[in-house]
Amino acid sequence: MLFDVFTLFPDVFEPYLQASIVQRARQNGLIEVRLHNIRDWAADKHRTTDDTPYAGGGGMVMKPDPIFAAVESALGMATGDSAPCPVILLTPQGRVFTQRIAAELAEHPRLALLCGRYEGVDERVRQHLVTDEISIGDYVLSGGELPALVLIDALTRLIPGALGDPDGAADDSHASGLLEYPHYTRPPDFRGWQVPEILLSGDHAKIARWRREQSLLRTRLRRPDLLTAAPLTEADRKFLANLEANDPLKVEG
Ligand code: 9D3
Question: Do 71 and 150 belong together in one domain?
Fold first, then answer.
């Protein structure tokens, strides 16, 4: 999978791309990330990439011409060298990124990621270049660079072979639609706090059921919105119905 990233701050990408699972995926040829500095496509001698908004309002707006030049050149749009690919603007106004959107985007062999800065980009970029707009959540960041890295990381994890584990991303929280059950490792007694007996029992069927129930309890308590959408078995529904019937206000420890 090829990511073309368009940014005024290409340097902030390097440290993360040179670490973690993303680095291994690059070394294994599973992903390629091409960083394009929008400033390299500014036409004037001061290499201007932003300007004041028409009709005032304060702040700065990213100029359309360097962005169009950078994206059209990198994607071979003028020469028709390459198939059209999604051009995603990272913006607080976009649809909020989820695992479902990650899976949808991971189907594409190539994505262009456009990182906004300042108050935003000239509206004509949105209208005539961008094909999709994504936010990573309702909080204010300084630009689209961290969101672009978030997207690259989430999509890389979905590529078969990108994780060491052959089971891949199937076990990830959110892939099942539920929050994860509690995890423990050695020692069995840490400062007097015990690992739940059942995990030491060796009874794999019982352990699987306990973990599933812990996932259901935790999701019901912390993210009831997920529970309505999650694929639940008949046994799951019985467990939840029983909880409601016996003790509607019971909270997990
Ligand atoms: C000061 C301007 N803000 C008025 C409320 C709007 C604004 C514009 C640009 C706020 C933040 C930004 C920079 N952020 C992004 O470009 C961004 C972002 C984010 O801030 N939060 C979550 N996802 C994203 S994706 C891109």
Answer: yes
Residue in 160, 84, 75, 146 with CA at minimum distance from that of residue 117: 146
Cα 59 to averaged position of ligand 1 atoms, centre (Å): 13
Q: Letter for the amino acid at 113?
A: L
pLDDT of residue 247 exceeding 90, the answer is no
What's the domain count of the chain?
2
CATH number of the domain at 225, please: 1.10.1270.20
Q: Which residue range is the domain that position 179 belongs to? A: 173-246
Q: Are 66 and 41 in contact (CB under 8 A)?
A: yes
Q: Is the CB of 147 under 6 A from ligand 1?
A: yes
Known catalytic residues are 92, 119, 157, 172
Q: Residue 212 Cα, ligand 1 centroid: separation in angstroms?
A: 38
The pLDDT tens digits for 141-176 are 999 999 999 999 999 999 999 998 766 665 555 568
Same-domain check for residues 145 and 179? no
Q: What is each CA distance from 242 to 100, 101, 194, 222, 239, in whole angstroms?
A: 30, 34, 27, 18, 5
* DSSP letter (8 states) at residue 63: -
- The Å distance, Cα 144 to ligand 1 centre, comes to 7
Residues 13 and 128 in one domain: yes
Which of ligand 1's atoms lies nearest the C-alpha of 139?
A: 21
pTM, two decimal places: 0.94
What's the CA gap between 7 and 9, in Å, rounded? Answer: 5
- The answer on 69 and 19 residing in a single domain is yes
Q: What is the reported pLDDT for 81?
A: 81
Report the interhelical angle of 20-27 vs 145-156 (nearest 10°): 60
